[in-house]
């Protein structure tokens, strides 16, 4: 069971089921190192300290945490291909494919992104992306409890 203000539940869901229930979620496998998780999207800074170096984790990246180009802090962007995009008024909802490494059995990673409606992209375009902000994580594999219960209570945003 998870109880708390909606912003807390959205940013720090107790498990992957809750993460998906309260909004779209990119769940990426990664490995911890120096306060970040190495993922298909590159190193992502973690909101909470990891339990140890080299620990396998599942990282939650919300679609609105994806930005175009290199990261503002100087981290390089990751090259992706736009595989689908849909205009939603003030936003674009994009499906992006990150090419897998040589020998990767699944052929890469798919992520969802939300970009401003002013973005000019088309299916097939290749662009660089980065993650903004801090990401929540769980020990891998991400727990997904079928008996998860939500109780959203009024409270100040965190």
UniProtKB/TrEMBL annotation:
Protein name stated in the entry: Transport-associated OB type 2 domain-containing protein
Q: Where is the Transport-associated OB type domain?
A: 59-130
Species lineage, top-down?
Answer: Bacteria, Bacillati, Actinomycetota, Actinomycetes, Streptosporangiales
One GO cellular-component annotation of the UniProt record comes to: ATP-binding cassette (ABC) transporter complex
- Enumerate the InterPro entries for this protein: Mo/tungstate-bd_C_term_dom, Transp-assoc_OB_typ2
Q: Name one GO molecular function term.
A: ATP binding
């Amino acid at each position: 069971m998870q109880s708390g203000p909606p912003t807390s539940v959205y940013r720090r869901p107790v498990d992957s089921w809750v993460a998906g229930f309260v909004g779209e979620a990119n769940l990426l496998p990664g490995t911890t190192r120096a306060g970040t998780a190495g993922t298909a999207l590159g190193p992502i800074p973690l909101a909470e300290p990891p339990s140890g170096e080299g620990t396998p984790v599942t990282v939650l990246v919300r679609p609105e945490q994806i930005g175009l180009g290199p990261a503002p802090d100087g981290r390089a962007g990751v090259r992706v291909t736009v595989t689908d995009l849909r205009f939603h008024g003030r936003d674009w909802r994009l499906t992006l494919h990150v090419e897998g490494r040589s020998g990767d059995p699944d052929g890469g990673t798919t992520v969802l992104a939300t970009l401003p409606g002013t973005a000019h992209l088309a299916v097939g375009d290749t662009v660089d992306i980065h993650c903004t902000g801090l990401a929540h994580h769980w020990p891998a594999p991400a727990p997904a409890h079928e008996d998860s219960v939500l109780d959203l209570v009024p409270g100040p945003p965190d």
